[in-house]
Amino acid sequence: MNEQTPLYVLTAPEGQLCGNGQLRETISERRKRKGDDVAFWYLSPDLVKQFKIPGTNIEAVVADERTSVVWLQLRFGGEVSTLDVDIDDLRKYAFELPPGPNIKDISTSK
User: Fold this and answer.
1) Which residues contact 110 (CB under 8 A, 6 or more apart)?
2) What fold characterizes domain 4-93?
């Protein structure tokens, strides 16, 4: 049986955290600086359900450092809580980066 570890979780409505691509950039930079095994993960709405985080149509960031999660909350909004999570499961299922930004074509054609 895997060990449950209390981690910090930032939750927000789907798209609020990853909609503009800045969270993807933040996680990528963090992994470059601290290595791929840094305790910092993005959870899509499907993964939020899989990890039994309360809420509907929400996305989340999970980390072992409270300051990291609070900084993201200041930047993107959302709610911070703690949750006992299996880190091995996070490493196995939540390693993917958040989706890239939704870029809209705002050019005009004549």
Assistant:
1) none
2) Alpha-Beta Plaits (3.30.70)
Whether the CB-CB separation of 41 and 85 falls below 8 Å is answered with no
Query: Comparing C-alpha atoms, which of 99, 5, 30, 104 is closest to residue 59?
Result: 99
Mean pLDDT value of segment 87-109: 82
**Residue closest to 42 by CA, chosen among 3, 58, 71, 84:** 58
pLDDT value of position 105: 65
Residue 33 one-letter amino acid: R
Contact 30, 38 (CB under 8 A): yes
Residue of 73, 7, 17, 83 whose CA lies nearest to 45 = 17
Give the model confidence (pLDDT) of 8-34 as tens digits.
Answer: 999 999 999 988 889 999 999 999 999
69: left (phi over 0), alpha (psi -120 to 50) or beta: alpha
